Amino acid sequence: MSSRYSPPKDLSHYAWLSIGAALATIALKGAAAWLTGSVGLLSDAAESVVNLIAAVVALIVLKIAAKPADADHQFGHSKAEYFSAVVEG
Questions:
Q1: Whole-angstrom Cα distance, residue 21 to residue 23?
Q2: Long-range contacts of 64-69, Cβ-Cβ distance < 8 Å, separation of 24 or more
Q3: 10 vs 38, 49, 56, CA distance in Å?
Q4: Cβ atoms of residues 40 and 30 within 8 Å
Q5: What angle do CA 47, 80, 57 make, to 5 degrees?
Q6: So what's the pLDDT on residue 9?
Q7: pTM over 0.85
Q8: Which DSSP string do the residues of 49-71 spell out, in sequence order?
């Protein structure tokens, strides 16, 4: 029996890129805050941690969404992506 639905794609490499970008941003802003003594830059670096958390959640959810359909999830696990949107919001 063939399914007319294509198997889910693993898009987690995009989340890894986002995690890398968030870590680089935090490092650069943190270094700039340390060099300049700017509290504003330090605050901005701390705020960037939210982006890192969102990227990690996206990675976890994308791994779940890439799982194929099973007996409990006839159309796959793609709705797990909505959880990531809620966390991001």
A1: 5
A2: 65/8, 66/8, 66/9, 66/10, 66/11, 66/12, 67/8, 68/7, 68/8, 69/3, 69/5
A3: 41, 25, 15
A4: no
A5: 25
A6: 73
A7: no
A8: HHHHHHHHHHHHHHHHHTSPP-S
Q: Are 61 and 84 spatial neighbours (Cβ–Cβ below 8 Å)? A: yes
The answer to whether 37 and 18 have CB atoms below 8 angstroms apart is no
Let me know: does 12 contact 65? Beta carbons within 8 Å. Answer: no
pLDDT in tens, 12-62: 888 899 999 999 999 999 999 999 999 999 999 999 999 999 899 988 888
Residue type present at position 18: S
Q: Which structure tokens are listed for 72?
A: 């409990």
CA gap 10, 53 in Å, rounded? 20
